[in-house]
Amino acid sequence: MKLTKKPHPLMRTSFILALILFSGALQSGCGGSVDFPGSGSINASEREICSALDVDSSQAFLDADNTAHFEQLDNDKTLFIFVSSAAAEPFDGQNVVRLDKAVVDFDYEDGSVDPGNLGGFWARWKLVCVPFTDERFNQFQNGTDKSTLSQFLSSSDRVETQISGPYLRNGCEWGDTDEIGTQSLTYSNYPLYDWDFFPGNDQILCVFYEGDDGIGDDVIQKLKISRTDGPIVIEESDKFHIELTSLADVAVP
User: Which sequence spans correspond to the domains of the chain?
Assistant: First the structure.
């Protein structure tokens, strides 16, 4: 894994580290029978497409080389998996960390990551963030990935989101990359964190992970984000590429 920087009008900053989705109340569109590479014919109703996408069926997604746009229309705190009751301000779409693009080459729902995890077609990618403290940063730097994830998920002031994929499941999840290959989504109006949740705290510590509700969770990458970081690129070759924006004046409609 390597670190690169992208210029921004306000500053030069970024990262190249590792990968984001929240669970919203989404509907779906589907239809017909779809031939997935290596799987034979399947019933498309088993793999419904999120209605937030600009394609309306599994076949249309495949025909577009597994590429689509995700249009998030809602703008309220219920879009997050979890926002601590300790948050001082409600989510208003101002001053956010925004998800712009996600490319998934390896879904992490795989026995090579966790031999006890039998996986399946769907992979649920999540992000948990906590306000920066010196004690947490020490854990972030020196603790194991699993222990850091466990600590953050048990923190009362955490914020959790899900990085939505193309297939309706629990919210929207990513498909099996061994079966259908790389999947790429761009996003509109997709916040991951609101800096107004905890006023005066301008840094957060985050963990990206493939989540199975505490059973076989697989850490993807740890990440430190500052309020004025601007464009952030998180990637690992042959696994993922994620683009975020973090600025004090970024807003989603």
Answer: 6-246
